[in-house]
Amino acid sequence: MSELLIDGRRIPLDKDGYLQELDDWSPAVATALAVREELELQPEHWEILELLRGFYAEFQLSPANRPLVKYVAQKLGPDKGNSLHLNRLFKGAPAKLAAKLAGLPKPTNCL
C-alpha cells in the first residue's frame, strides 16, 4: 500500500493509486496525485474533475469512457465532450485517470 503525505497528513492509497477513503480528497490531494502521474493540472482538467465529482455524487459510481464522454458533452458541450479532447487531457485513459485525480473509485469495467 502506498500513501500521499499532504500537509503532514498521511493519505492511504490502494494498490492502483486510488484513494482508499473518498473523504480524503481535496484539491491538494488531486494535485499530488497528478504529480505522481507526471501531469500538471490546468483549468480544463479541474473542470472535468469537478464534473466527475458531481457525477459520482448523483450516481454513486465512476463512469467508464463512453458514459464519461457523453456526460461531459451534455454538461459542457461537444467541444469538450469528445474522446479526442478527454484523451489529450488525461493521457489516453480519461475514465481511469480522471477518476483517480477526482478521488473516486476506479471505474468498474476498466482494467
Automatic annotation (TrEMBL):
What's its job? Part of a sulfur-relay system.
Q: Which parts pass through the membrane?
A: none
Q: Which PANTHER family match?
A: SULFURTRANSFERASE TUSE
Keyword vocabulary terms for this entry: Cytoplasm, Transferase
Q: What name does this protein carry?
A: Sulfurtransferase
Quote the subcellular location field of this record: Cytoplasm
Q: Which domain of life is it from?
A: Bacteria
InterPro entries, A to Z: DsrC-like_C, DsrC-like_dom_sf, DsrC-like_N, DsrC/TusE
Chief site of localization: cytoplasm
Coiled coil region boundaries: none
Please verify whether the record's keywords include Electron transport: no
Similarity section: Belongs to the dsrC/tusE family.
